[in-house]
Amino acid sequence: MSQKGCLSDVHGTCNPEPMCVYHKSEYIRFYCEECRVFICDDCISGNGKHRRCFKTKLSDYGNRTRRLLRERTKRAEDKLSKLSSELDLTMQVQNRFNEAVDESINSVVFRREIIRQKFDDLQKQLITKLDGLRNQANTQYEEFIKLHTNKYCKMKEITETIRTTETDMTEDNMMIYTSKLNTFIDTSEVVPKLEPPSYVTDDKYFSSKYLQQLFGDIEFVEFNYLPIATY
């Protein structure tokens, strides 16, 4: 604190000091650690409500909060880098999944050429099933990408804002940004790794009774990935 009515930031700039919400004519001087509110001299003197509370000088509280904000910002930036890598990995996994589905579709088409027109309907059913499974998988991939791209952009904007305005932030704004960073840091991301369906055939049968087995079916692991909740 440089003078009455001012709070000096790290550059020595004098910023207007906030007033106590309990004593409108008094400037805040302390932070009550027990009640988690900013208080003034009147709050801790005489019959003041916070006279017996454990409190911290405003300057000490500001320094502590700023250190915490910087630490959380650094951790958030580290996590942004990790999330960026995970988004790249998700798109790579998605491409490999789609390639595997395309290979299965090509196998279906090839098999159909062997047995000609008899299997037109079965071909349509199998391709529809494959495309349906691909759509289910792509929905989960795109939800993950959209969700975490949005998260990445939001948190990058927040960390950049902190980097450019942190020295002039008020204590309450630092608390707000710290809370946002904590929420981001404490969440986890799981890249969806869905098992591609596998096209299988059995050549032992060629009668109408076993046409379905001859033409083949789709083997796949049930998709059980659940998208992370929206931030």
In words, what does this structure look like?
The protein is mostly helical and 231 residues long. Helices cover 55% and strands 10% of the residues. It contains five helices and seven strands. The chain has a three-stranded antiparallel β-sheet. A two-stranded antiparallel ribbon has the order 1-2. A two-stranded antiparallel sheet has the order 6-7. α2 packs antiparallel against α3 and α2 runs parallel beside α4. It is rod-shaped and about 100 Å long. The N terminus is likely disordered.
Quick structural summary:
This protein is mainly alpha-helical.
Strand residue percentage:
5-15%
- Unreliable stretches covering 5 or more consecutive residues: 1-14
Topology pattern, helix = H, strand = E: EEEEHEHHHEHE
Amino- and carboxy-terminal Cα gap: 38 Å
Helix content: 55-70%
Widest beta sheet: strand line-up: 4-3-5
Mean pLDDT across every amino acid position: 82
Question: Which structural class matches the secondary elements?
Answer: mainly alpha
| Shape, per Cα inertia axes | rod-shaped
Q: What is the number of helical segments per DSSP (H or I, 4+ residues)?
A: 5
Describe the largest sheet.
3 strands, antiparallel
Radius of gyration: 31 Å
Number of strands: 7
Itemize the secondary structure elements and their pairings.
Elements: E1 6-8, E2 14-16, E3 28-32, E4 37-40, H1 41-44, E5 55-57, H2 58-115, H3 120-165, H4 171-185, E6 198-200, H5 211-215, E7 217-219
Antiparallel strand pairs: 1-2, 3-4, 3-5, 6-7
Helix pairs in contact: 2-3, 2-4
